[in-house]
Amino acid sequence: MMKYLKPFFLVTDIGFILYWIATFFNIIPKSWAFKDYNHSIIIAWNWSFFPLDILISITGLSSLYLYKKGKELWKTFALISLVLTFCSGLQAIAFWIYSKDFDFTWWAMNLYLLIYPLFFLRMFMKEDKRNVNESSERVTSV
């Protein structure tokens, strides 16, 4: 599973770090920014994602590190990162639906955050179900 998950984690986690550096240093060109980007409430709304997005990066990159070290704990960190990534995308899309704002670029990035974790979460659930079934088979055969 990590073979397929690793590129998503790298793109997402490094992307979040770069986005927040660009946001902090006000590097994003006005023409690329979403609607009302300079409005104080929108600035506050955007920065409210900072802790969540950085936690996503920390858990995702930690998962890659733990996987490389052969520690099973990588799965826990990966699962946390995927759930939080889904939540980050969902919150942004919900806000833009509520505010009736559609910008293809920002929607595409946040739909990516909303959708890609679902495929891997499904894989985690299938693997967990398989492990439960194997455990119950061992118990019943003893």
Structural summary, described in words:
With 142 residues, the chain is an all-alpha fold. It has one domain (2-28, 35-141). It contains 5 helices and no strands. α1 packs antiparallel against α3, α3 runs antiparallel to α4 (74-98) and α4 (74-98) runs antiparallel to α5. The longest helix is centred in the C-terminal third of the chain and has 38 residues, at 104-141. It is elongated, with a radius of gyration of 18 Å. The chain starts with a helix and ends with a helix. The mean pLDDT is 91.
* Termini separation: 31 Å
Q: How many beta-strand runs?
A: 0
Helix content: over 70%
| Overall tally of domains | 1
**How many strands, what sense, and barrel or not for the largest sheet?**
none
> Outline, from the CA principal axes?
elongated
Give the integer mean of the pLDDT values: 91
Instruction: Give the SSE order as H and E letters.
Output: HHHHH
Q: What structural class results from the helix and strand content?
A: mainly alpha
- What is the CA-atom radius of gyration, in angstroms? 18 Å
- Uncertain runs: none
Count the helices. How many? 5
In percent terms, what proportion of residues is strand?
under 5%
What key attributes describe this structure?
142 residues; single chain; elongated; mainly alpha; 80% helix; 5 helices
Note the topology:
Layout: H1 2-24, H2 40-47, H3 50-68, H4 74-98, H5 104-141
Helix pairs in contact: 1-3, 3-4, 4-5
